[in-house]
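User: Please predict the structure of the protein below. I'd like the answer in structure-token form so I can feed it into my own downstream comparison script.

Assistant: Understood. Taking the following sequence of 823 residues as input:
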Amino acid sequence: MSEQPTQKRRPADHSLPTSTWFESLLHDIRHACRGMRRSPGFTAITVMTLAIGIGINAAVFTVARASLFKGFPLVKNGDRIVYLTTNRNAVRYPDFLDWRAQAASFEGIALVRGVFTTLSGDSGAPATYFTTEITTNAFQLLGVTPMLGRDFVASDQEAGAAPVVILRHDIWRSRFGQDPNIIGRTVRLNGVPTTIVGVMPPSFSFAENQSLWIPLVPASAALTRDTFYARYAFGRLAVGATIESARVEMDTIGRRLAATYPRTNGNLVPVVRDFGEFFIGASATAAYAALWGAAGFVLLIACSNVANLLLQRAIGRSRDIAVRIALGASRGRILRQLLVESLLLSGVAGVVGWWIAQAAVRAYTLARGGGVMTDVLSYTLDSRVLTYLAAITIATGLLVGVPATIRLTRSSVNRSLRASGPGFTEGMGGRRLSDVLVTVEVALTLMLLSGAGLMTRSVLAVYSAEVGVNTSNVLTMSMYIPSEQYPDAASRVGFYQRLVTRLESVPGVESVALGTAPPTEAIARSGYELAGADAVEEEARPTVAHLAVSPDYWRTLQARVVSGREFSDLDQASTLPVAIVNQTFAARNWPREDAVGRRLRMHLDGVPQEWLTVVGVASDIVQDDRTRQERKAVVYVPYQQRPSQNMFVFARTRVAPENLAPTFASQVYEMDANLPVPTPMPLALRFDRAYAFERNLLMAFLLFATVALLLAVVGLYATVAHSVSRRIQEIGIRMAVGATTRDIRRLVFRQGALPLGIGLVTGLAASLAVTRVLESVLVRVSPVDPATLVAVSLVMIIPAALGCLLPARHAVRVDPVVALRYD
């Protein structure tokens, strides 16, 4: 008898083959798509709710990354570029040379100096451009090369070298018609023949929104340690170096230079900052972190809202799912189907969110107009933004699907099979979970409202603060006269006197004045001493802000000299050195005495100057304080006794100041066609642009808070309305046994009041901690301001109460007879 071959029994394999698993997944996707098509209204609401949250987050990520991390477009590894200045916000050329020679934390350091130049000598009309004088190693450190022509070379920086210039791409396109043969052409910069040697790639601009680059050839005066020559330098961190280690090393170098040159460097401290800190502000990181957090709250609120909607929908499907489980479907299979549905909804929302993000970024770019970085930063939605959007889309899909899956996979099959549709009450488990989601929405919304309320009060405090001048009908114009054309004090004074005379003759002009800085902006500070006071060490000497102004300065700005006299044309270099101090300076130094007739002298870079006799006390004008809150001590000197290359023109007009801007520019051109003249600007507009960042931050907070409030109210309404619809029979029974409309209304309001109340308490407690993130950007308002918290609570309660009112009205209109037959 032949033996039959035996076959080995394979162990049972409970896992599905890959092809079967994939087919099952496709089936779940098709099932989810059919469900979305069957409920277009529900699908549209959930997709748009999630899309708003996802889009806002992607937009904020794009803006924050460009502002804090990416830096300038096209720069290689821009996060490795840091910016070096001093506690005086200026750099001396010899100090720059010492930094470059001694610092090991950098691959190299370059110096940049922003100036205005007039371009002429080509087919176009003379025009003024923002120009960078830059050391010849700068573009190498940035990792960017010209698209046409060549980079600067070391010989371009030598004294006596032939002048050369590199053009920004859009200047080459707009002014030179993208001429491919532009290299080697000669133009005039400030009247000096200059050869074009290169054109930079599109979108590149450094170090701010400069249009031209020329080699930095320091003047002889800049080679001494008595002259601050540039605002900052920049360097690329060496391999292994961090910004913290660079700060430590630069601090050591600063102390070494202070010991070697105590007169000029005794109080000078090197400062190292990253891109966001230097160009946007020390509080930029905190501001963008708060904005990013606000956007995250909006997304969490949207997720809570959609999760609640999916939970309510899932409760209605509980009997169907119980049948499937009873017929053999595993809970894991059901779980996967539910997650596929939520992921598909979030996937569609992610696509829509991408378009919302693009629109939001474009809107931000337009709203940000006026800042020096407006034309520089690249707010592109690149691959990293797309990766971020994809990640939060997937996370959102998982998050919104969790409550429904927990509720359904843990529910009792027998109890679900006994459910009788709409008349079936979903039970305490589903109701509690829904209430938790609403509570989260309310708490997050209140935190957002608190942040928006604090930002609103802060910005209003800035805008409503008294600056000390009347900004209406004042035209400002920044002037820079090169030392090559105006080498001494007499030539500078003569130019400015002629300019003031010409501008005063323009129809519509009331008065014209000069000053070295506009109100609120930073001005130079120096040590000073008072006649008769005890001698102190230079390091312990008090400092004061000072600026040079012309006669009619206070009349033009509609400030006043409260005692003594104003400056006059008789205050010249050959006459007695005089000064006017503001009320804060007088009160600090001569609190119970008349300041007029007193004497003081400045110590510029540690060198004592001539004694100044105080001839007047002026009202306080805010200087060196963007918040407009602090009245700092200021000393004014006649510009004729201390003429500067840089001056601001202030003209009070009888007509709209912007209408006179072209006339002012033409008047300067007629005096000297080679002078650079930036576009004149109304003083009010200058102030407005200075606060563009804070204003846009406020608008973003208000927008996010409004969206969050709408979502929270809708979520609360949906929860209460769904609960009422599921409790029709219960309401009917209550009314049949004698419950009044007031009782029913109270029942419904109690349903919404519980999560609302818990959310308010939780949100207020969290706000006390979270709003402290805004402390660095708030002005004259505490991050735990009680009035703001009470106000935003009312803003939350009133619409939430309205969200409960509609379901309550529906509930009291229930006919008990109809309700008892309702199933």
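That's the full token string. Residues 486-671 form one domain.
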